[in-house]
Specification:
Elements (H helix, E strand, L loop, with lengths): L4 E7 L7 E9 L2 E5 L6 H13 L7 E5 L5 H14 L2 E5 L3 H7 L10 H7 L3 H13 L13 E3 L3 E5 L2 E7 L8 E5 L4 E5 L20 H13 L5 E4 L8 H22 L7 H7 L1 E2 L4 E2 L5 H20 L3 E5 L5 E5 L25
Parallel strand pairs: 3-4, 4-5, 5-6, 10-11
Antiparallel strand pairs: 1-2, 2-3, 7-8, 8-9, 9-10, 12-13, 14-15
Helix pairs in contact: 4-5, 5-9, 6-7, 7-9, 8-9
């Protein structure tokens, strides 16, 4: 990707995404890896073969800078650090997720079925609970606490490079991007992706306004110089400014579609999700598998909750906890043209 900086795509299992990009930065003291991949034998084998091509091995990795706590970024870093003593850093906003994983409440019960019920997706919630009960034993060795928590915006020295660590909550509360201004590069994790948008609302524990957080974080990245985007998924993108602008426009368009869907009356988030198009190919919600139906319902809920925060929509829970949304009188609608090219949304775009 640049002098002393290498991209290593690692495989993902049964996932809508083919690979997660791990970036290796060479220093005189060894390697720093941005993200670690999913703790799978196949991913580790690819990592070892790839490092060998630059004359290194996993024992040469001194440090992991993990953009966020999702398993395709964190778990292999955690596993390898336990073996080699490499130093791991993670955003402190993701500490509640690790706290939950290490508590007696996990993995006994996921919070997502409850969220799906408030969204009105009861059948999907039941299927998600069945899936959770069938999962293999939870390996805490893949979820060890990091050696250091990243807090606020600050600078990191990585060999001869100076990286701006920028807190970008939204996809997860503790997400970070790393900007190398001198080289004109943005190691963007899942925050800025070149052809898709990250999932919003699929985070543990559940947060109040994930979409509001995400869009505010996009605006903060827009304030950086225009940088070449080195994402965690997909190809390199030439302009962080252009991609951020497209993502913001895309979500404004989705917000307008949600508001328009409410014109027929008071409905649940699942009702709205059922009439929206999904993915870059405009699939119907009914055609999605149960996992992606759940992702779509939670992302729609995130959009509706932001409309509530903007005072364009009212939300009313019923006695069972299902939230109904209704557009306020006088709220403007309309979203202009279809969302920006390549700015696909939701359910299968990027999961945990």
């Amino acid at each position: 990707m640049a002098d002393g900086l290498h991209r290593i795509p690692l495989p993902l299992p049964n996932d809508g995404l083919r690979a997660v990009n791990v970036y290796a930065l060479e220093t005189d003291d060894g390697l720093t890896l941005v993200d670690g991949g999913w703790a799978l034998p196949a991913a580790r084998a690819v990592l070892e073969r790839s490092l060998a091509r630059i004359g290194a091995g996993v024992g040469d990795v001194r440090r992991f800078l993990v953009t966020h706590v999702h398993r395709d970024h964190y778990t292999l870093a955690s596993q390898l650090a336990g073996e080699t003593g490499a130093h791991v850093s993670l955003g402190i906003g993701d500490k509640p997720a690790l706290d939950l994983f290490h508590s007696d409440a996990w993995p006994g019960r996921s919070p997502f079925p409850d969220v799906l019920r408030t969204a009105g997706a009861h059948g999907v919630a039941e299927r998600w609970e069945e899936h959770a009960r069938s999962q293999e034993e939870f390996d805490l060795g893949h979820w060890a606490y990091p050696d250091a928590w990243l807090e606020g915006d600050h600078r990191l020295e990585v060999g001869t490079r100076t990286l701006d660590a920028v807190h970008t909550p939204g996809h997860t509360p503790g997400h970070y991007v790393f900007a190398d201004r001198a080289a004109g590069l943005l190691l963007s994790g899942d925050h800025v992706l070149p052809t898709i948008t990250p999932s919003i609302g699929f985070t543990v524990p559940v947060v109040a306004s994930p979409l509001g957080d995400f869009m505010a974080s996009l605006a903060r990245v827009r304030e950086l110089p225009d940088l070449r985007v080195l994402p965690a998924h997909g190809p390199v993108a030439p302009s962080s400014h252009a991609r951020v602008d497209a993502l913001l426009a895309h979500h404004e368009h989705r917000l307008a579609l949600c508001l328009e869907a409410l014109r027929s009356g008071s409905v649940s988030a699942a009702d709205v999700a059922a009439v929206l198009p999904w993915t870059r190919h405009d699939h119907a919600w009914a055609s999605l598998d149960v996992f992606n139906q759940g992702m779509a319902a939670m992302e729609t809920k995130a959009h509706l909750d932001l409309l509530v925060a903007r005072e364009q929509v009212d939300a009313t829970p019923d006695p069972a906890g299902v939230v109904s949304y209704a557009a306020r009188l006088g709220s403007p609608t309309g979203g202009g043209e279809n969302g920006p090219a390549g700015a696909g949304t939701g359910p299968a775009d990027d999961g945990e």
